[in-house]
Amino acid sequence: MTTENPPPGAAAPARPQPSADPGAPLADPGAAFAELLPETRRELAHRVAACQAEGRAPALVATVVRAGAPVWNGGAGELPAGVGPERVRFRIGSITKTLTAVLVLRLRDEGLLDLDQPVARWLPAPHAGSATVAQLLSHSAGLAAEARGPWWERTPGALRPELADVFGPEPDLHPAGRRFHYSNPGYALLGALVERLRGEPWFAVLRREVLEPLGMADTSYASEEPAVRGWAVHPHADLRQPEPAVDTGRMAPAGQLWSTTRDLGRFAAFLIDGDEAVLAPESLAEMRAPAAPPEPSDWPTVYGLGLRLAREEGRTLVGHGGSMPGFLAGLWLDPEQRTGVAALANATSGPGVRALARELLATLRRREPTFPAPWRPADAADAETQRDLLPLTGSWFWGTQGYVLALGARGAVSLRPAGPGGGRGSAFRRVGEAEWVGLDGYFAGERLAVHRDRDGRVGHLDLGTFVFTREPYEPGAPVPGGADPAGWTG
Fold first, then answer.
1. Domains, the chain, ordered by start
2. Closest by alpha carbon to 46, among 312, 319, 360?
3. pTM summary value
4. Which residues contact 227 (CB under 8 A, 6 or more apart)?
5. Are 116 and 132 in contact (CB under 8 A)?
6. Are strands 90-91 and 339-345 parallel, antiparallel or unpaired?
7. What whole-number distance in Å separates Cα of residue 214 and Cα of residue 78?
């Protein structure tokens, strides 16, 4: 059975018309295309059906979100009757880790912990006490990949009742901070850290602080109807057997949860745009920044703080996969396009749901790219700031390399290479009357300062000891090493 559920609404909205009032809000050119084209919907449905059939999954479902709202839901295989595929619960495995990471960032934003301090400062950790919270979040704490005892995903958490019980005889495999090594016990530590600082169980905190504010009512600790069963499908025959669905106990923050693609779509929208009630956009951007070097076999994928980052066709995708016995999950986002895809299947192996999620993102980008936000002039307060900074704009030179300085909102600036020669560029946030700090690229964290002549006019820029002048090697400017007194000659 293959099903496809369009979002509510029968007719497409009317195409927006330009306003004759220059003071009125500008029309959004993408509003006329809030619903997907029939050809796009068919391609999405076909890819889901093909993944279910080729991967031999009993059931597979997917949801696509764009600009904060679902635009397509679909599924194939054995699904409960009378309910949309986006409302059926599957186990989501390690996508649970991303939710745990959000809780940890909330604690940091409240000042209750420091990501760069050892976890042992707040938690009597039996192992990895010298590892920082950030290293646990980014799987660079050096811990072993799996928990003590038999396969923890198929055995009850009662076998590991205390935090020390999740660590095997060789828990520390690598020096902390030296390499990326995925660790499930590391996220058990982070869940225990949340419990220690909040004084209540991890899932109770998650439900109150993340799930309820985001409207993720279908996300649960254990299976709740409507749900599918997890299956192991024989690799060489059309036969199957059920997988156990255990309570993983102390390991729950690493992979316990059940959810739906509807809820994961809401989580995807949050990961793209943020929600001040849960986590500020700046903290989400921190989660999406590379935090650990990849293993050679993982290139071009790196890990942030609870999220993976992947480079595909010149763009950066963000997300996480998940697996538990009987289940596979994929959640991937294209922040530039403000799109996300959640895909879930109930098979231990076979269907490539993580790759499917990225394929559906590529389909949406190719067929129906997101419209850019309309350009708008600066508001009154920002306009005054930009007028004051206008003398900084335009052409600058570092040596002979040309750059252009442009203004942004709230006093921000960008300094980018001019022309095809390339070079190092960054965006900068204002931190003083004549000082900015780099946000990205080579100059991230570096200071950009404006120096004025005696008459108060802008003279030169100093960026981490690099001097930028209005002309190449401008005479009289404090260029390190000076300029040749003969000037430019043939």
1. 45-367 (3.40.710.10), 380-468 (2.40.128)
2. 360
3. 0.87
4. 80, 88, 89, 90, 258
5. yes
6. unpaired
7. 29
Q: For the beta carbon of residue 10, count every other beta carbon within 10 angstroms.
A: 6
Q: Where are the alpha helices (DSSP H) in 344-473?
A: 353-367, 380-389
Alpha-carbon distance 103 to 110, whole Å? Answer: 11
Q: What CA–CA distance (Å, rounded) separates 438 from 447?
A: 6
Q: What are the strands of the beta sheet with 327-334, ordered from one edge?
A: 2-5, 69-77, 59-66, 339-345, 327-334, 315-324, 308-312, 301-303
The residue whose two tokens read 């909102």 is 409
Q: Contact, 160 vs 166, CB < 8 A?
A: yes
Chain centre distance of CA 167: 29
**What's the pLDDT tens digit per position in 144-188?**
999 999 999 999 999 999 999 998 888 888 888 889 999 999 999
Whole-angstrom distance, CA of residue 51 vs CA of residue 87: 20
pLDDT in tens, 215-271: 999 999 999 999 999 999 999 999 999 999 999 999 999 999 999 999 999 999 999
Q: What DSSP character marks residue 220?
A: B
- The DSSP string of 152-207 is GGGS-GGGS-SGGGGS-S--B-S-TTSS----HHHHHHHHHHHHHHHSS-HHHHHI
E strands in 221-290: 231-233, 240-242, 258-259
d(CA 353, CA 327): 10
